[in-house]
Amino acid sequence: QVQLVESGGGLVQAGGSLRLSCTASGSAVSAYAMGWHRQAPGKQRELVAALALTGRTHYTDSVTGRLTISRDNSKNTLYLQMKNEKPEDSGIYYCKQGLYAWGQGAPGTVSS
Length: 112
Known about the structure:
The chain is built from no helices and eleven strands. The protein is globular, with a radius of gyration of 13 Å. The protein is mainly beta.
């Protein structure tokens, strides 16, 4: 059974940095395309960063240059490094593996 557990969320001031982690069990992060999705209050969940099996990355326009998705296969963990945070980055961040596996979400709040 696949389990994805996010950690590292919290409160940060605008301009600050935050790093989220997603540790997988029951499957390997290296064997699937992985992604980070964000759901802001009152809005739909959206993909903000994706990491293909090839290692190619994709970012939504609003976060390009500020977010970095990466994985450590030895720790079976996916990361999202966020810098120069903006209030509009606030939301619940979900890790996704492949097409169907989701983590429980980690909150990230950016104060102005």
